Amino acid sequence: MNSKKTNTDKFYQVKHEYLGRSVVTIFGIMLILITITMVLFLFSKGIKTFTQNHIPIKDFLFSTAWMPGREEAQGGPAVGALIFIIGSVFISGLALLISTPFSVALAIFMTQISPSFGKKLLQPIIEIFVGIPSVVYGWIGLSVLVPFLRHQIGGLGFSLLAGSLVLSVMIFPTITTVAADSLSIIPDDYKEASYALGATRWQTIRKIIFPSALPGILTGVVLGLARAFGEALAVQMVIGNTIRIPGSILDSTVNLTSIITMDMGNTAMGTTWNNALWSMALLLLIISFIFIFIIHRIGRKGSTSA
Amino acid sequence: MTKCKPFVIALILVLSLSVALVGCSSNTQPTPAPAASGPSGSATAVGSSALQPLAEKAAEMFMEKNKNAKVQVQGGGSGTGLTQVAQGGADIGNSDVFAAEKLPADQAGTLVDHKVCVVGFATVVNPEVKVDSLTGKQLIDIFTGKITNWKDVGGQDLKIVILNRPASSGTRATFKKYALNGAEEATGQALTEDSSGAIKKALSDTKGSISYLALSYVDNSVKALKYDGVEATVANITSGKYPIWSYEHMYTKGEAKGVAKDFIEFIMSDAFKSTITQMGYIPNSEMKVTRDK
Asked: Going by C-beta distance under 8 Å and a sequence separation of 6 or more, which residues neighbour residue A256?
């Protein structure tokens, strides 16, 4: 790849080719190493519930019995995580249901209907949303949303609905940004061909642009879901953390991230209780791997059909 | 041939970087100061967030007096504190509960307990609740879910909302042990808040709510209840009339030594007593009753 002239001057090559390349390579390798060691660490911690405490995986995933501090005399600790898993699924799922229509509509508006307004005003506003720390969302949820739900709708305010509403605000920038990106790269030829056939702008958007951008939009939705699953602080502040499967969206409930943050510092390492929390962290990681896998599948499908 | 060179260079750079990092970390090790008057060196205290404010204040005053000594105080929870001190990661492990309640017996046995002060807890309710005193029996019935309306304990017709701390919290463990006689709380009913501050906020906002707080957190935004007719005051705790209190512990692995020993001695000294009282804790020396588990 190099000419013969530079090849003879070893020092020249080191300076102009290898130095930069090595630095970049090192950072790349380090990042990969960090990722691998973190996954391995989490894995080695997370499986202790099953290898050391001999809790069957089936019980951990499908049992609702959460009595991690129970004495040996009364049957020993029970660490069924089903309640937390269901809580996470319900809260994130509802957040996605609330957030997706808004986000996709906003993305269509800012890329197709009013691009200049979208770029100048909406884009910066969405970026501000991304920058707000999650504790602020949680605090606003606790001080405004929870009392509002309590007085206007009923119940205690601390509820699955409150958690989902807070989350839906938090994930909408992710979905909107990714969806807008995929909408804006649709070639103008598509639009023009549609207009030439006499379609209105809305018909063009609905029949041509939206279907073409669908893989990108779905990627945004899955990314939003992944974010919702992993969010801890803001949700924990408004869902009430009652360890039960919610009977309605106005009931308080609990999720994986909340129970981890609440109990991690207060339990001693090596106990079944602490190990079960690590297993939940591992479960969260596996779930996010699944989401990433789905995103890749969507991306591949999109590129082959286009 | 040229292909493997960048890799070799990369390897060399990584190695040198790691050597440099190791070098750095060994530099930060405290170098023993030349013999001066007073203690020198450093100690870390990790754990209980309930004890943290007091420990931080003590560290500040201790370092003011002993310029050569450095004490670092960190939170993280009682479980973290006990684990860290048992594994040698910290010199002092702060805990709200006895080590034997959190750690396996073989680990708890290696730790030495220093009871530095006492914390009292009060049963607290939303200010609108028209009840002033609860008996131990009523309290147990409320927290186990047998009584669900305030009218059953002499109050107005209002649903009782239980606010709990997480099951692993030291405050909850203390309350369960001394106020509820160890009765298992009803599951799936209580709301749970992560910190005493969050409990206080939720309590003042939620009608009919009941919870428990360390006395240092109790103020006008909540209403403290009497326990069996006895008010939660310092005088009633020290005389043994009011039972809901616990020790704050500082654990060391083996006997305390070095700065850790001097620091613990400072916290338990007469000079620090007034600060303990000021910050809402109770000095050990004022207690007329003791407990050993």
From this structure: A81, A84, A85, A87, A88, A229, A280, A283, A284
